[in-house]
Amino acid sequence: MSTQQAAPGRSSTTLVLVTLFFGVFVMGCAELLVVGVLDLIAADLDVSVSAAGGLVTAFALGIAIGGPVLTMLTMKLNKRTVLVGALVVFIVANLVLVLASHYALFLAARFVAGAVEGLFIGVAFVAGMAIVPPERVGRAIALIISGVTVSAAVGVPLGTLASQGFGWRGSFTGIIVLCVLALVATMVLVPSVAGSERDASADAGQAKYAFAPRVLFMLTVNIVVFTSLYTALTYIVPFLQNVTGITGALVSAFLLAYGVATAVGSFGGGRFADKSASGTLIVGTAGTAVALLVLYFVGSIPVLVALVMLLWGVLAMSMAPSLQLRVVTLAGPGGRVASSLPASAVNIGIAAGSAAGGVAISGFGPSAPIITASAIAVVGVLLAWATSYLKPPVIEKTAEPAA
Within this chain, do residues 99 and 37 fall inside the same structural domain, yes or no? Predict the structure, then answer.
């Protein structure tokens, strides 16, 4: 089992967690920035916008497939070394985007960037949990995972705006600079957290726990929660424009407010995860289902839409720390491998949600993704309730032979 070399003090612990948060934040900006500059990339590479959208898919597949594989392959390495290595590869992958102009090379670079982001996030959770007492694990997870939500709320809008003045390559150059800062901070501030020193059979045993039915069931909740979220969120702009009747900068203001709400929910959700992760998921899924239903019915009233979107954002992302904590806890000895699995489940949910929302809006109009997302969230309530009965594995210690 991994052990840290020295337990940092409270202030040092906070600094380490902020460093891990910053690394996740920068990677999240790089992941999501493409969405805001697809038209610019498509024009630059002389491909269609739908083909440029493949860069989003490639990144998601990198996280979903490459993240868990790399996590298993690097289990025995020192966690600080893995974090540093992931950042170095991420920097190189984004340099390819800035310097190259071949579409196939772009796809490969995005897949690699996604894989090392999945690795970084999973290992960041392990390193973060290793330096805090058990009663603060949920809050540590919340701070780290908030890097993703804050990147969506702040980093992506700012990066997209910068692209208008400096081009999309200029925005990614800025991402590279931030990655270098994250790399330096990780090398200086993150303590040494030793890797696992087990043999191959023990590694297989960890995989057995990480992919146990109870963990896979819990991952299903992850998928459903984010399927619901992205069924509505992917097509929220057409809803705001065609149903609510707002356009231009006001749409950006609504999205920014929603993004800030998700960040608040993610930060605050850590405390609820520490108290009752299972209860948080039940309340969060139920609240999300109701919020989306209300949004469907008040869609033509801008003030109410803004208020409901704030509530929706807080509720949706308040579940993120609990989802991560439950998966790692239910995996028991396989927690290190399982730590990267929620990121894979999230990306499966994103892909499924965008597809479901696309079918809904094509067949039934701009309000359809909202009500579809609410129905999916109801399924999430049932799954969250069912998984609340799942318990971590009981590991029996081998008895010592008598003298």
Answer: yes
